[in-house]
Amino acid sequence: MCGRYELHTHPAVLALAFGLPFPPDITPRYNIAPMQNVPVIRRGADGARELAQVRWGLVPRWAKDPAIGARMINARGETIAQKSAFKRPFERHRCLVPADGFYEWKTLPGGRKQPVHVAMKDGRPFAFAGLAERWLGADGEVVDSCTIVTTEANALLRPVHERMPVIVAPDDYARWLDVGGEPPIDLVAPYPADAMSFEPVSTRVNAVRNDDASLIEPVEVTVEAEGDLVSITGADAQAESPQKDLF
Predict the structure, then answer these.
(1) Which among 82, 203, 89 is positioned nearest to 147, based on CA atoms?
(2) Is 2 a catalytic residue?
(3) Is 224 domain-assigned?
(4) Among 6, 95, 104, 199, which one carries the catalytic annotation?
(5) Is 182 a catalytic residue?
(6) Of 48, 56, 74, 94, which is least packed with CB atoms within 10 Å of its CB?
(7) Is residue 169, in this structure, part of any structural domain at all?
(8) Residue 224 confidence class, pLDDT cut points 50, 70, 90
(9) Interatomic CA distance for residues 153 and 132, integer angstroms
(10) What is the DSSP letter of 192?
(11) Active-site residue identified among 2, 6, 95, 146
(12) CB 78 within 8 A of CB 151
């Protein structure tokens, strides 16, 4: 799944990475949470790519109450072509959700949950596969919203969580955004594990009110495994056998 992420890339770099005509007016955010407004990249009425702010938590057109969006922050990729809430957005309103990294929580021995920050090994920004929708209330209220598509985890993230967000490769941005043809269901797949890495980070990320660059700084984590204290410093620790089953 994907329940928290961050985006701190400079707007000018973001514009180049995603083919935007000019740098977007956004500021770094290190703890983006559901039901907040988030930037998405979509095709505008003129066909050009544009960045828009929409609420994270998709509100289907048929919904009676926009509060339903809190339960639709993610869409299972295996069923987006069939589920009534996602079928139309998948066919007509696909978008990209830019990010520099996302957070997941690994359950450690003893039940403690350790947050980890997942990103690309080369540090570049990337894009989640998103679906967007516009909801019109009876009183004239308009809510533009989105959801992040998920799939089964790749080999890197499987020890952390069974699901991961669908990440669209740069060469496939145009296909995902082009709603004129057949929906690209083949892009709903785990991203290559060897292109990604993760590091344990501070539990300060658990509180949405915390939003600063220190949230993505790696921390050393010490856990007890089979009676021994083991220090874990990140994804590279997987190569050492005492830590293999933990991260």
Answers:
(1) 89
(2) yes
(3) no
(4) 104
(5) no
(6) 48
(7) yes
(8) low
(9) 23
(10) P
(11) 2
(12) yes
